[in-house]
Write a structure and sequence with these properties.
single chain; about 500 residues; alpha/beta; Rossmann fold; 3 domains; six-stranded mixed β-sheet; 24 strands; globular
Length: about 500
């Protein structure tokens, strides 16, 4: 529950009619947001709705064109991140702002070291670091290098650093995107502790189930405007989705009719050290085969072997009844196999290159004209894909790094479709993507299998892997623990039971 306060007491934070314009784009149009003391406010909206711009305005990275920001009823001008921090605001972005080679303690006190007689008091810093970690219910060695900590532990260091700075408002941007379910539960427990201590949280997430579990209120942005605000207990999931996308989505996962053909891919005894151990399965034409399992179960390692990104110790990869030798990704591509990686920004795209250049990169042979690349043919092919996949891009020359997560995923998909791939490996295809863009990705998956393509779908979201798959393989410690023949009739509990089985 929200911390109680006198009705005459102003909110801890008010953002009134915030406007921010960039060249050719009005990112925020009179956006309003309020935050009470000890409240968890969910801030949601599709990619490109204005959430990041609003957060950066609060964090002092963007100065609004107009509007007013009040803290404790007092108007403030957040001209820089340093001013924002002095006002008790801490922003924890999805990509952490930690020095990986420094220890947890050094990151905690970087720039605000505890000094005794002109020297850094390491003992006092260690004691305070342990106290902060204990306050958050975590046991972290203060002297451990941040690069050696888990994602959840690094996130805890970020939260502890905010507390060490006496932050009263903590903004968490997609805090669970790279966490396992156990780590998510731990983070939500930390947030509950912070709320009890009167700290206010702005929680930005695409995962609606978490919003209903942790948030007191929700504010929805769409196209740079505030389109909805309500206590979470008073707004239904369907209403929340409609606010976000501007239209009702009748179902979370679109229906499709399965029309399975012959076996396209067969994997026999696929192995690589202890990461992948004796994996066997078949994938049919027009089938979505879900791959489930906890983080570290070997799902990604297994598909990287099929794609040739890692070398297998033993095993056979058979396509259309014929064994194929796949030693590197170009062998997989040549055989009609493509991989949409879980980290599209690091492995799926070159962010400083244009959307069109990323689209053309694996298809250069198709666009060759003598010794040169036919730019006109490439541009025409990209424009066709842009229309077919509804990629929101100002032009083919727009940098891939400037696109939303959903549109980045579509660019990756477009380049593989252009290459005439038959087997698509989707590794966490909707991670960090809003609910509207997720639905579009689901529709594209259904279109692919309707055209006779075959899909391996890895997802950490159990509703997604159940809702989109025909069959499900469940992995643990590099092995297949079991197979669910009909995904539509199973439950999350049944999948988890296999993932945790001995």
């Amino acid at each position: 529950m929200v911390a109680s306060s006198d009705s005459a007491t102003p909110p801890l934070l008010e953002m009134k009619e915030i406007v921010k314009t960039f060249p050719g784009v009005k990112a925020l149009s009179e956006v309003t947001l309020t935050l009470a003391r000890g409240e968890v406010l969910a801030l949601v909206g599709e990619n490109g709705a204005g959430k990041s711009t609003l957060i950066k305005a609060l964090g002092g990275a963007h100065l609004p064109d107009s509007g007013e920001i009040l803290i404790d009823g007092k108007s403030v001008t957040l001209r820089s991140p340093q001013v924002s921090q002095r006002e008790g605001i801490a922003i924890i972005f999805q990509e952490f702002n930690l020095a990986p080679k420094l220890s947890a303690r050094e990151n905690l006190f970087l720039g605000k070291e505890i000094v005794n007689r002109g020297f850094i008091d390491h003992r006092a810093e260690r004691a305070q670091a342990r106290e902060l970690f204990g306050q958050l219910g975590m046991s972290i060695d203060p002297e451990a290098r941040c690069e050696n900590l888990t994602v959840a532990e690094q996130q805890t260091v970020e939260i502890a650093r905010a507390l060490a700075s006496d932050a009263r408002i903590i903004v968490m941007d997609e805090p669970t995107a790279a966490l396992s379910q156990q780590e998510v539960d731990k983070l939500l427990s930390i947030i509950r502790r912070l709320r009890k201590e009167g700290i206010s949280i702005i929680y930005v997430s695409h995962r609606l189930e978490e919003i209903y579990e942790i948030a007191d209120r929700v504010t929805v942005l769409r196209d740079g405007e505030t389109v909805g605000e309500a206590p979470v207990s008073e707004v239904s999931k369907s209403q929340l989705i409609e606010w976000m996308v501007g239209r009702p989505l009748e179902e979370e996962f679109p229906e499709r009719q399965s029309n399975l053909g012959p076996v396209r891919l067969k994997v026999e005894n696929l192995s690589r050290g202890s990461a992948v151990r004796g994996v066997n399965f078949e994938l049919r034409e027009g089938e979505v085969l879900g791959i489930s399992g906890l983080v570290g179960s070997g799902r990604t390692e297994m598909v990287r072997l099929i794609f040739g990104a890692d070398h297998l110790d033993q095993g056979n990869i058979i396509m259309d009844g014929k064994e194929r030798r796949i030693c590197e990704p170009r062998d997989a591509i040549r055989n009609g196999i493509c991989l949409l990686t879980e980290d599209r920004k690091e492995q799926g795209l070159i962010l400083i290159h244009s959307a069109q250049e990323n689209f053309g990169l694996p298809n250069l042979q198709a666009f060759k004209k003598g010794f040169l690349i036919d730019g006109k043919a490439e541009a025409q092919a990209f424009e066709t894909s842009r229309k077919n996949l509804k990629i929101k891009v100002s032009s083919g020359s727009q940098k891939a790094g400037q696109l939303s997560g959903g549109n980045q995923q579509k660019v990756v998909l477009a380049k593989w479709l252009q290459g005439k791939a038959d087997i698509f490996i989707f590794d966490e295809p909707t991670r960090g993507i809003d609910v509207g863009a997720k639905y579009e990705i689901y529709l594209l998956i259904n279109e692919l299998v309707a055209r006779g393509k075959s899909i391996l779908l890895i997802s950490s979201e159990l509703p997604e892997v159940i809702g989109m798959s025909d069959r499900i393989l469940v992995m643990k410690e590099g092995q297949v623990m079991g197979e669910i023949e009909d995904a539509r009739t199973t439950s999350q509990e049944a999948v988890l039971a296999l993932a945790l089985s001995e």
